[in-house]
Amino acid sequence: xxxxxxxxxxxxxxxxxxxxxxxxxxxxxxxxxxxxxxxxxxxxxxxxxxxxxxxxxxxxxxxxxxxxxxxxxxxxxxxxxxxxxxxxxxxxxxxxxxxxxxxxxxxxxxxxxxxxxxxxxxxxxxxxxxxxxxxxxxxxxxxxxxxxxxxxxxxxxxxxxxxxxxxxxxxxxxxxxxxxxxxxxxxxxxxxxxxxxxxxxxxxxx
Length: 206
Fold this sequence. Notes:
It is a single chain. By secondary structure, the protein is mainly α. Helix content is 73%, strand content 0%. The chain has 8 helices and no strands. The longest helix has 27 residues, at 28-54. The radius of gyration is 17 Å and the shape is globular. The two termini are 24 Å apart.
């Protein structure tokens, strides 16, 4: 995990240093949203890495975590650029989150995806749908000419690519031959959780 922290810090410093200098003021709601999105991008990477150990032949779980690291570093770089200290977030270990809703979501999603490769791919799909929805909401809180707005847009494009990858693998991954009732229950619960977190007031849970 130390290597991950060093990578994120170094990349964030690089992104901050190479960004176009621009004084920017964001609302407290936008700041809370930025912190939330840093943890949400971390959640995606942490979940996918856990699945990568369980399903080593499924390529999205090998490739996408590196992209999620870049997403975290991009947002940390944007935080650094406006003088926002997020060291409390970048120092978190894998599977640990300050936001209680995201901590609960992480545990539930890992449990769901551990039942089968099909379930894990479904979790990946749901995470990307959640990410796109939350990035869209975060963008609505900031000026369209801001660097953060552009960064959110880039992350959304990547999330659509990830979503396509998961859908492609789902299309060729058979549903478990004898699905257990609890498997479907967890998948349905996952959809409910994703919808609930997407609608949650981000300021209230920080």
